Amino acid sequence: VPCSAFPRSGICNFSGQCQLLRQFLLAASPDLEISCRQGRRGSFEVAIDGRLVHSKLSSLAFPQPASVLSQVQRAQRGEPVETVLEEPIKDCRLM
User: Which of 8, 57, 78, 80 maximizes the CB count within 10 A of its CB?
Assistant: First the structure.
């Protein structure tokens, strides 16, 4: 479940969001291979087995962790994954 995050001058902590999502997923399924890496400015993308299931640039929101977990579980069962549900960005000023 690659997760691309790029912190934006301390205004929004996308890297922190990625780490929180990573911890949530590993708590539910410790055998997952998850990476957080910097992407382009202001991005926060989640891909499962190479399929993009969330883009902050498109949605202006973060993914719901439980929805990401649900899609990861679908992938583990060999089912196709779908776009995850979103939650509004809180405590963050977008510029």
Answer: 8
Which 8-state DSSP code applies to residue 8? B
Q: What is the DSSP letter of 16?
A: H
pLDDT in tens, 27-48: 999 999 888 887 777 788 899 9
Using H for helix, E for strand and C for coil, what is the string for the chain?
CEEEECCECCCECHHHHHHHHHHHHHHHCCCCCCEEECCCCCCEEEEECCEEEEEHHHHCEEECHHHHHHHHHHHHCCCCCCCCCEEECCCCCCC
The model's pTM: 0.79
